[in-house]
Write a structure and sequence with these properties.
Blueprint: H1 2-25, E1 32-33, H2 34-41, H3 45-58, E2 63-66, E3 71-74, H4 76-82, E4 113-114, E5 121-122, E6 127-129, E7 136-138, H5 139-148
Antiparallel strand pairs: 1-3, 2-3, 4-5, 6-7
The structure holds zinc ion (3 copies).
Length: 159
């Protein structure tokens, strides 16, 4: 009986380590849902949830898990550390520097699409759109999002 229990603890500990490694590789800017995490872990959702809660009991600074929405959100600390420097974006028409809060150029009035993930202006080139709702995203942002999620961040349909 006791041997069995110790066996279980060792197993859980191993899986917990695997999860920690997985979380460390993810982009902390984006929340992860349980379904995706279970996929990456190669475990049932219920087991994955148990391991996640077990892991977070040990390492509370990683982030928070909400069992209602089944979403894991990385803690702010990690996010700040990994945040990239913001690039200045110029209007392709008049070359004035764009503020990332307006969806049009304040100088020449040209309008732009907004990336639904970072809320930043999409000026040109590398974009991806959702086949269900048609919303546009920066290619790299949607790809990062897809590392940890399978659904569109806007309409929640499978991409
Ligand atoms: Zn302009
Ligand atoms: Zn973006
Ligand atoms: Zn969509």
């Amino acid at each position: 009986m006791l041997v069995k229990q110790i066996d279980e603890i060792i197993k859980t500990e191993k899986k917990s380590l695997k999860m920690e490694n997985l979380l460390a590789e993810m982009n902390p800017e984006f929340p992860v849902n349980l379904e995706r995490m279970a996929e990456l872990m190669g475990e049932e959702k219920t087991i994955t949830e148990e391991i996640l809660i077990y892991t977070l009991n040990k390492r509370q600074n990683i982030g928070k898990y909400d069992s209602m929405s089944q979403m894991f959100v990385f803690s702010g600390k990690t996010i700040k550390k990994q945040q990239k420097k913001e690039k200045k974006i110029k209007c392709p028409k008049c070359r004035s520097v764009l503020t990332n809060t307006e969806s049009k150029c304040l100088n020449c009035g040209r309008e732009f699409e907004i990336c639904q993930i970072c809320r930043g202006i999409i000026v040109e080139g590398k974009t991806l759109s959702c086949s269900s709702c048609g919303r546009l995203f920066h290619k790299e942002h949607l790809e990062e999002w897809m590392n940890t999620n399978r659904n569109c961040p806007v309409c929640k349909e499978k991409i």
